[in-house]
Amino acid sequence: MKASMIDFCVDEILGFEFSGSGEHLIVNIRKHGQNSRWIAARLAELAGIEERYVGYCGLKDRFAVTSQWYSLYLPNRCLNIADLSHPDFEVLSLKRHSKKLRRGMHAGNSFKILITDISASQEKLEQRLKMIDQLGFPNYFAQQRFGFNGGNLLEAEYLINSARRLRGNSKGQGLFLSAARSWLFNLVLARHITNYHNGIVFPLDETGPLWGRGRSKPNQGVALVEREALIDWPGWKHALEHTGLTQDRRKLFMQADGLKFNFLESCQLKLEFNLPKGVYATALLRELAEFNR
């Protein structure tokens, strides 16, 4: 996976139409080798505005070919594609809209992925893909959520164990605390899967906790699994309850929309599918094979 950047392509799906007029210039960008925040900063420079006037819906992979939308607050100003030209990204189109793009406004993402150097049986892979298409896959937060070598979790642990007063929206802390609650969710999901392998029915239609202040009301069996999975994490739960984050729920299992696959050669597999926002393509890909260490 990702032997080359062009093997992993992501296109943002907004799920709504632009108004066609308004104070915001909407820019569709195709990038590779750069992260979304860096692109936002370059667009601000090119447009001659402060970076806080640039909006976008989500972060896209750096080591991939991705397209996404940005909004530039430009009341009574017009720019063309040439004005935003930059060697590190391509401007695909410009539109006008009445609102700034904000995190989480998009509906999801469309993926086209090429996996190379496959040594597994094509027949077994087809069986596994058909099962994923029919039943779905565990909705894990993937490794990129936790930073390089889990660095975001190490920072979260430092913040939680230190005497510093935490705030979920404080600059530099939100990312680490978000990683912490993602980790707790993954522990709960993993416990459900372990229970399934021990003969307990998996709660396909249930959700898991995104920890914070307040209490959600899962059914009794799901609540018991959550208590068991997180019994050794009281400090993390307590800290997340006092950061300003509100407890939420996330689906334990997800399904891809429009999953298609094609074996180009005996050792290459091409996948196409759409996922809702916040769901990781790598969570689907990890279900293609079982790894033995």
Structural account:
The protein is 29% helix and 25% strand. The chain has 293 residues and is α+β, with helices and mostly antiparallel strands. The chain folds into two domains: 5-106, Pseudouridine synthase, CATH 3.30.2350; 137-254, Pseudouridine synthase (2-Layer Sandwich). Strands 1, 2, 3, 4, 5, 6, 11 and 12 form an eight-stranded mixed beta sheet that branches. Helix 3 packs across helix 4 (174-197) and helix 4 (174-197) packs across helix 5. The longest helix is centred in the middle third of the chain and has 24 residues, at 174-197. It is globular and about 60 Å long. The model has no long low-confidence stretch (mean pLDDT 91).
